[in-house]
Design goal:
By secondary structure, the chain is mostly beta strands. It has no helices and eleven strands. Strands 2, 4, 5, 6, 9, 10 and 11 form a seven-stranded mixed beta sheet that branches. Strands 1-3-8-7 form a four-stranded antiparallel beta sheet, with no helix packed on it. Strand 5 (46-51) and strand 6 form a beta hairpin. It starts with a strand and ends with a strand.
């Protein structure tokens, strides 16, 4: 089992940047593929980015490609989401999620992630 705690959210002007972090408990962090999801008010939770267990493979929601970068540091049990050129439509509660999987296939399906953090709020003003 793994516990996840997100941090780094906040209020930023459009065009600005934020770096989200997700700290995981436990010794087996490298056994998990990791993902970031977000949920805006009145909308369903949507996939943002995913990274495989060793960081060699990533995938992104089309609307964030070229602006967001997911990375991980297995020695620190942490996954990051660097968000640049933020837009008001990026405003949402951002969640970190873990999937016990050491294969090469990345998933954008929230039901495939068994562990979730509490979320960190990102608000982008226009």
């Amino acid at each position: 089992q793994v516990q996840l705690v997100e941090s780094g959210g906040g209020l930023v002007q459009g065009g600005g940047s934020l770096r989200l972090s997700c700290a995981a408990s436990g010794r087996t962090f490298s056994s998990y593929a990791m993902g970031w999801f977000r949920q805006a008010p009145g909308k369903e939770r949507e996939f943002v980015a995913a990274i495989n267990w060793h960081g060699g493979s990533t995938s992104y929601l089309d609307s964030v490609k070229g602006r967001f970068t997911i990375s991980r540091d297995n020695a620190r049990n942490t996954v990051f989401l660097q968000m640049n050129m933020l837009k008001p439509e990026d405003t949402a509660l951002y969640y970190c999620a873990a999937r016990l999987y050491r294969g090469s296939t990345l998933s954008d399906r929230n039901y495939e992630y068994a562990y979730w953090g509490q979320g960190t709020q990102v608000t982008v003003s226009s």
